[in-house]
Structure formats: structure tokens, C-alpha cells
Specification:
Blueprint: E1 26-32, E2 35-40, E3 43-47, E4 54-55, E5 58-60, E6 75-77, H1 88-93, E7 100-103, H2 107-112, E8 118-121, E9 126-129, E10 132-138, E11 155-160, E12 164-167, E13 186-190, H3 205-215, E14 219-223, E15 228-229, H4 242-254, E16 259-260, E17 268-270
Parallel strand pairs: 3-6, 6-7, 7-8, 12-13, 13-14, 14-16
Antiparallel strand pairs: 1-2, 1-17, 2-3, 4-5, 5-15, 9-10, 10-11, 11-12
């Protein structure tokens, strides 16, 4: 398992004794890649859940997460249908008692793989889970799962309760991102991927730092890095923690008011 990257990180683990509900406004646990467990006002939301050790050709190089340690969630947010963000096995095994919110028109494919209670959204749509507002935002990313697989319009999400959080999903910079400026307590920003580089429709550390400057949240947490890799060690990065470190350094330069917290998979912070 990777060692922590220390940039104002406040790290604990899923099994720690929880604080009383009236203490933190939000608790954030990064489970790896784009999978984040958010608890705001007692409502638990899980993003792009992928909890297996292998996805297609990709293997998990970060420490494993036991799905049984993930508590029952009130809602799942899917940003798009790529295999490293929408995993049928994980989705079927999750303990949840609320909807999967997914981009239009993903419901047919999700129902076909055995997942029910799906609510489709497009950018600008709003729904609610418990006392949280869930607002779909635009995203600039490929809409195809694979060449001949299902398609859905990628989205990000903003959650608003007593704390506010932006989950960008997978995206490049886009103009409407500026609409979020100064309105967020937290931004979960992808900063890399799993290969030697990132292609169109992704943020790298420099563009993610620019996104942090555009959105200007109180706290930014880099995600989508250091979790999966190609199976051949010679084709992996010799320094899988570099994207998060680079993002933190660049964000201090571009957006010095933003508190960057770098977690390792299983790491937790509270707002």
C-alpha cells in the first residue's frame, strides 16, 4: 500500500470509531480512483463505485478495500459508464437503500446488468436524497463505454446541504465550471488516470490545479490517481504518487487560498 502524501492531510480509516453526527458537517473517505464515500448531514453518498482488485486489464496497485467495510449508502452517483467508473459487480453487491443517480440514458444498461432503482439526469437537473440537493453538472468526457457499448452523457455532481461538495467525475476543463466559483466547501478533482499519460477529456495535475483556481473551493482533494495500473510492472509509473504531489504544488501557486488534502485509499478527512 502506498504511504501517505502529506499535504495538510487528515487521515483515518473506515473502521475508526465515528464522531457524533453533530460534530463534522461532512466526512470524506477516498476509497481509490473515483470512488469516494461522502457523508453530509447524516446522508451517505458513494461516487463511481469500483471496489474490486481488477477491472478488465487494470490491476489495483493501492491497498485493497473490503466492500463489507463500506456502510450502507443512501445514494450512488455515477458520472459516466466507463468500466473504471461503472462496475457491474460492485454495483450489484453494494448495500444501499436509495437510488443510483446516473447520466441519461444509462438506466436501460444498468437494468440489463441487474441494477434497479435508477434515476437519470442531464446537466442542470436536480434531485434530492434525504436533506441533500443533488445537482448534475456538465462534464467534458467521452460518452462511450467502449466502441460498441452503451453510451451516456457524462456529468459531474454538486451536493448541497450544510456543506457543499463537487464531484467532477471524469472531465477536462469546461466553461460552466466558473459558475461554481466560491460556492463550495469541497471539490473532488481527478488529477490523472492509470496509464503513462492522459488523453482528451481528462484533467492532469496542471489542468486540475487550474480547475481548483476556477472553482475556488475551501478544500480540494485529488482523486483518480495511484489506484489502478497496467499489469506489466515495466509499463507502470515509477512514482504513482507524483500526480497528487504535483497537483498540490501547482494549486498552492494558482489558488493559494485552497486547502489541498491528499489522501491515500482508505484515508478520511472531515470538514
Amino acid at each position: 500500500m502506498m504511504t501517505p502524501v502529506g499535504v495538510q492531510a487528515h487521515i483515518s480509516h473506515i473502521g475508526d470509531t465515528p464522531l457524533p453526527r453533530n460534530v463534522p458537517r461532512a466526512t470524506v473517505t477516498w476509497l481509490g480512483h473515483a470512488t469516494v464515500l461522502l457523508e453530509i448531514d447524516g446522508v451517505r453518498v458513494l461516487t463511481d463505485p469500483v471496489l474490486r482488485s481488477r477491472i478488465g486489464p487494470l490491476v489495483r496497485i493501492a491497498g485493497p478495500v473490503d466492500p463489507s467495510t463500506v456502510p450502507r449508502v443512501d445514494c450512488v452517483l455515477l458520472s459516466h459508464l466507463h468500466a473504471d467508473h461503472a462496475d457491474p459487480t460492485t454495483l450489484r453487491r453494494l448495500a444501499r437503500h436509495g437510488p443510483i443517480v446516473a447520466p441519461w440514458p444509462a438506466a436501460r444498461w444498468l437494468q440489463r446488468i441487474g441494477v434497479s432503482d435508477v434515476q437519470e439526469v442531464r446537466p442542470g437537473d436536480e434531485t434530492s436524497v434525504g436533506g441533500l440537493r443533488v445537482i448534475a453538472t456538465p462534464a467534458s468526457h467521452d460518452h462511450r463505454r467502449w466502441r460498441f457499448g452503451p453510451t451516456a452523457q457524462p456529468v459531474g455532481y454538486v451536493l448541497r446541504g450544510s456543506a457543499s461538495a463537487y464531484f467532477a467525475g471524469d472531465t477536462d476543463l469546461f466553461g460552466e465550471m466558473a459558475d461554481l466559483h466560491g460556492s463550495l466547501d469541497l471539490a473532488l478533482l481527478p488529477v490523472w488516470g492509470w496509464g503513462p499519460d492522459v488523453g482528451p477529456g481528462h484533467l492532469d495535475p496542471e489542468r486540475a490545479a487550474r480547475a481548483a483556481a476556477i472553482v475556488c473551493p475551501a478544500v480540494a482533494i485529488p482523486i483518480h490517481w495511484g489506484t489502478f495500473a497496467l499489469p506489466r510492472p515495466l509499463r507502470r509509473s515509477a512514482d504513482p504518487e507524483w500526480p497528487a504531489r504535483e497537483f498540490a504544488e501547482l494549486t498552492r501557486r494558482y489558488a493559494p487560498s485552497v486547502d489541498v488534502r491528499v489522501l491515500t485509499p482508505g484515508g478520511q478527512t472531515r470538514l
